[in-house]
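Example 3.2
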Amino acid sequence: MEKKNKSKGKKGITLVSLVITIIVLLILAGVAINLAIDEEGLIGKAEEAVESWNRAVGE
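Structure, written as tokens:
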């Protein structure tokens, strides 16, 4: 009976580690979205590059 109690706590991940993992992933997703959507982000730079390309080509 005592062996079951000792091994019971070592099974799987804990709720605390799961919550911490989810919080870290949410923070990373927020940073990634902010970098992509911001005016100086990836989307803004891509739109600026398209406009620059169109001006250079003469369309």
